[in-house]
Amino acid sequence: MAFLPKDLSVLAYANGFTLWHYTTPDTAAQVRVAGYMNAASHMLRLGDMVLANTGTAGTQAAGIFLVSGNSGGTVNLSDLTPVGAADSD
pTM for this structure? Predict the structure, then answer.
């Protein structure tokens, strides 16, 4: 799939920092690729964080991406930092 701006929403904003939420059937590896979120380059700033639910149509993962680059309209995200631990059940 591709980035869908309708699935990116603001959770909080303060002091020039925005905390976002994004949900997608794409994997974390696909979302993390430089350029994936270019359509939101006018909104995303260095240091913003994106809480993400990825792989919603299959193997789900949740975590936090850091906006580590945004230059010339190309957005780069850090690797997903996972949230939660393995379920031992």
Answer: 0.91
Neighbours of 34 (CB within 10 A): 12
**Burial group, residue 50, by CB count within 10 angstroms (0-12, 13-18, 19+):** buried
Is residue 86 scored above 90 in pLDDT?
no
Domain that holds residue 45: 5-63+70-82
- What average pLDDT does the structure give for the chain? 94
49, β-bridge pairs: 19, 66
Number of domains in the chain: 1
Structure tokens at 81: 């930092």
